[in-house]
Amino acid sequence: MADERGRSRRAGTHPDLRTAAVQGVLDDVAAGRSAELGRPLRVLDVGGGTGGTAVPLAAAGHDVTVVDPSPDALASLRRRAADTGTSERVHPVQGDTDTIGDLAAPGGHRPYDLVCLHGTLEVVDDPDTALANIAGVLARGGILSLVVAQRLPAALARALAGEFVRARAILERPDGRWGDDDPAPRRFDEQGVLDLLLAHGFTPVDSHGVRIFSDLVPSALVDSEADRTALLELEDVASHHRDHPLLGALGSVRHVLATRG
């Protein structure tokens, strides 16, 4: 995702636009599942870093364990949780997808009701092993929220920058990289993601592209709350538009929700 992040920084897009669409869907899903179970959720956020996903869920009353390999990121998470009054519901743990099988949810309860894997499947050593480990800690009927970098927008970005050989390589290589010097370890196509999930016992229930426009729009055109709201509403319509499914493939990332049977 490194080139997509650079594209957003150059455009100067308001940072909330990078996460708001995913967080809005996630908040609704968590609230619905919590209502079904009649209690707050036990959430596992793998690769959750400084808590951009975890803290809003904790603020909504859910109990969130955040696993990340970076001690610096976890220190920032602790400060963020303290600043938002969510420290009692946020549990930082240093680790990765290989160590989550050793975790117990707070209070010793297993398994988790919701697992978030946002921007992490691209960088793990083996996506199959990572998803197998997640399946092992997710409750039956539980929800996996998966966000992955997409191949097509990266190829388009390289082509528009005049890097035609790299764009072709992104389209043709199985890992979606332009070469060994590509800072992104892996990119995905929608069908590849869905096949991976099905192979590990997950049932995809929603799949849509995110950040179709927001990574490209200059900040000068999004300088008010009304502008940001309008852009997010456009993103929502485009990502779910049945008559124009290609739009979702142009999103910098894909957000997939899946349940474990």
From TrEMBL:
Q: Which GO BP terms apply? A: methylation
Keywords in alphabetical order, please.
Answer: Methyltransferase, Transferase
**Residue intervals of the Methyltransferase type domain:** 44-144
Kindly give the InterPro entries that the UniProt entry links to this protein: Methyltransf_12, SAM-dependent_MTases_sf
State one Pfam family annotation: Methyltransf_12
Origin superkingdom? Bacteria
Would the keyword Transferase turn up in this protein's UniProt record?
Answer: yes
Instruction: Indicate whether Methyltransferase appears among the record's keywords.
Output: yes
Gene Ontology molecular functions: methyltransferase activity
Instruction: Read off the PANTHER family from this record.
Output: TRANS-ACONITATE 2-METHYLTRANSFERASE-RELATED
What is this protein identified as? Methyltransferase
Provenance organism:
Fodinibacter luteus
Upper lineage is:
Bacteria, Bacillati, Actinomycetota, Actinomycetes, Micrococcales
